[in-house]
Amino acid sequence: MLNPSKFPVLPMRADRFYRVMPFGDSLTSGTSTFSGWRGPLKRVLADLGVTNWEYVGSQTGQQGYLADYGRDWQHEAYGGETVTQLTARIATALTSNAPDVTVAMMGSNDGDTTDVQVIKGRFDRFFDAYFAVTTNPIVSLSRPPANTNGAITMDSVVQAGIDGWRLSVQGQLSRGRSVLPVDPHALIRDHFHRYMFSGDNTHYNELGYHQLALGIAEALAGRTRPPVAPTASVRITAAGTDFDFAEGASVAKLSSLDTFDVTTVAGRTVRIPAQWPVGTAWPAAVVRVHGADVTSGGAVAMSNIVASAFAPATRW
Q1: Which of helix, strand or coil describes residue 263?
Q2: Which is it for the CA torsion 55, 32, 83, 90, positive or negative?
């Protein structure tokens, strides 16, 4: 079986520039206002100091906050397509875009079978088509978890999709092919929460895509940022006052009724809902807690939020 702790990594070198091709279905292209995992990956690698790369591809939809990076939002991802359909596209995509590395997430639309060997065969044929054109590395991800009633969806179809991908990747590695596997289920399982998903419970929001981006970043850069211990904590007690944290902070509620707005280090304002668990840190670091928007049961809250500041140069 695959051992995620021993997965190979690239890593990206500082003395060259990389062309990275995002490839897959709508989890890569993105939906609604989200750019899939592509936007979060830009942020994660930038925080690691890895900026010597760009996205390539013929598609430019679903920019999300990739608009912050000029026109660097290209991809080769096609919503609703199966592994077989994407296999038919890969040779042209490689020839047209000449990527140094491809990041491919696929399999979510292969829900027509519970046969592990069928899924394995589909991924085998994809990898054969890929390596018939190039020997450059490919970061490969299986279908990621979906959400059912607040729990990870795991049925015979999903299990077959995961196991078939794992078997195929294991075979590629045994042949010496440059496949860098990232297991989305391993990434999401330990941090799972229903608020990581968009309304359809299959696609993610910025928080969920950020978690996937962490695994992709580790495969590309060979490292991710280690956990950071907070340097100090403050209990928010002054209603109507904004609290700023220049280097970022984690925030957690002390009351189940609280809802409040924060601005994340990515510059986005999001509302932490009343349903968010008490004592659980919001996954994205924040630079501002909007005091005027802190409410508890419809009234302005007092003393119900704890913010833990990070040290300088450790902002996420």
Answers
A1: strand
A2: negative
User: What is the C-alpha separation between 148 and 151, in angstroms, rounded?
Assistant: 5
H helices of 175-247, where? 184-189, 206-221
Domain ranges of the chain: 8-221, 232-309
Token pair belonging to 210: 């950020």
Residue 137 to residue 104: CA distance in whole angstroms: 11
**CA distances (Å), origin 203, targets 87, 213, 301:** 22, 14, 33
Domain made up of 8-221: CATH architecture: 3-Layer(aba) Sandwich (3.40)
pLDDT digits (tens, 9 = 90+) for 84-117: 999 999 999 999 999 999 999 999 999 999 999 9
Ranges under pLDDT 70 in the chain:
1-9, 32-35, 61-72, 189-195, 199, 206, 223-241, 245-248, 257, 265-267, 291-316
CA 53 to chain centroid, in Å, comes to: 18
Give the integer Cα–Cα distance in Å for 67 and 60: 11
Name which of 214, 33, 62 is nearest 141 in CA terms. 214
CA distance 164 to 176: 19
* Coil/strand/helix, residue 55: strand
Cα dihedral 39, 43, 44, 50, rounded to 10, equals 110
